[in-house]
Amino acid sequence: MSDARNAVRLRQYLLTLSPEARSGLRHRLERAGGTDAIIVLDELRRLQAPDLTGPARLFFQPLEPFLVDEAGEWPFRLHRAALPRLWHWLACDVLRDEAGAFSTQAGAAVAAGDVARAERLTHDFQDCAVAFLRAAFSESDDQLLPRRLLMQLGRPRAADEVATLRWVLRGRDALAALSARLPATIDDLPPQSIPVLTMLVETAAQPREVFVYALLMVMRRLATPWQIVRLAVHAAGSNSAARVVETPYGVVLDILLADLDCQIAQLGTALAASDGAAAIRLIKAIDGAVQGLHGELAIPVGSTPGRRLAAITAEAGVVTRAALAAAGSGPAALSA
Hints:
two-stranded parallel ribbon
């Protein structure tokens, strides 16, 4: 087995662990030493964002369902690696005094084992951050202020990242209540469950900007994520893609199509690393999502969604064929 394939499989395993588990593993390996430990530590360091303080981890906890580790532009989600820069922006640039007080007091509460006080302090500072973001981005008379703040943050997707931070924190309690009412995994989304799930999403969508994050939370629990489109069909009262995109639930189609683009990029990486198992998994997921969307929705070939799906299917085929040609092998290479 090649070193590249070993590295990919190790990385995939480490990505299944929670951030806390990865951090604990890293600390144990740093104490243990040895060649094998060094190899794993190198992968952990590539995956982990710079360490956040305990209070900062508490602050970002509501965002956990909306964090991604994989490269790509995943709509309405944050890369985990963005958190340290966001924290620095809040704590050093825009809310220095408030963040300093929170870090000191919450850190002391955590050290003393006072979980309830740490939670209260965290909620207070989250609410403070939301109030600042609302004033700066929605209520300020200074039209240049949002642009200056985003330039100060200095990230390519700064506006999207700030919006996700703002609305997930704003919907913190409603999203937590939704999470508590959802099964850990929904293996299949039957018709009789759709009205209940729709009601839960609508209840959590207060204010309305939280709506998309409630949908993403449901989607995250689905073993087959593309099935979230069934809520959109229910809301539209029709399987017509044109009718679906006219409803607020039409956003799920944009999310699923963007996610397919990210999966194709992952497929290219897996094939380049000769990781047949990951490639097969991704090919099945991409094909299943494309077929599932065609099965659930009436999508005219010439429509925008129809053209995007056709392009996705074609690109996945090109990526796979190019990798196989480069390897000088046929389909059997995927199972190697």
